[in-house]
Design goal:
This protein starts with a helix and ends in a 5-residue tail after the last helix. α1 packs antiparallel against α2 and α7 crosses α14. The chain has 3 domains: about 80 residues, no CATH class; about 100 residues, Cytochrome Bc1 Complex, Chain D, domain 2, CATH 1.10.760.10; about 80 residues, Orthogonal Bundle (Cytochrome Bc1 Complex, Chain D, domain 2), CATH 1.10.760. The protein is built from 14 helices and 2 strands, in the order αββααααααααααααα. It has about 300 residues and is mainly alpha-helical. A hairpin with a 3-residue loop joins β1 and β2.
Length: about 300
Amino acid sequence: MTFWSYYVIALTVITLIASTWLLWVTSKKRGNNDTQSSTETTGHVWDGDLTEYNKPLPRWWINLFYLTIVFAIAYLIWYPSADKVEGKGNWSSRSQHDAEKAKADEKLKVLYARFDGKGIDAIAADPVALVTGSQIFSNNCAVCHGSNAAGGKGFPNLSDGIWKFSGEPEEILTTVPHGVNVPEGRQSVMPPMAPLLGSEQAITETAVYVQSLSGLKVDEALATAGGKLYAGVCAACHGADGKGMPLLGAPNLTDNDWLYGSSLEDIKYGLVNGRNGQMPAQLPLIGETEARLAAAYVYSLSQPKK
């Protein structure tokens, strides 16, 4: 046990002993006289004739106080009351949490049973399922992707039709449960390109060319030089035309969707340091059916509204 555990235990024991002693001393003053007719005073007098008497506490009050001390001792014995010391009642907050969670999970299992094994496109057509899916998304996904699923820098926008891998139902149902750049999930890593490009000038030229692919206004001379470097270093993943490869998780560089920003500094940072964004697997966290419902909700966001 730690110092603070011993400190709290000692403080508790001293308080109980001191309270018991104080009650005992107080009750002794009653002697054999169980009435409250004592004329002993404290010596305090106000307004000339208002005297403060020193009468003993009522017996019922003292007995009630004794009962609270007995209750406190029983409580400390029955429940865990010290670090790494189990109570006689074998109760713990963890066991109570697990028991209540098991009951809640059983209720949810019944509720979710009708969605087991269904394709997320079919689930997305069910308004009730979408409400549940949106709640699961809010509780587990919104912290990164935003409450409206619009994402942010480094976190993809899930409400548009632009996908790093693919927007097909089976692809989303692979990504959501198993994650990205985690042991069991999809792998989508961009290694640092600086060693291959070789110089600061080459990095700048390549970054300018990447900007030009999406129609940004750039220095044409730098873009032309960068195009040759891009063809030798980046085209293997992003394609000769820059439209990306969903199979590798290599994004399309010709649209206006920039996960990390479209500024020259942002692109150069990616070329120098690489990119290795991660998404945790949701399957171990929320279970298969809940992950399926969340995936269905995500799928519905990019579908035309009827």
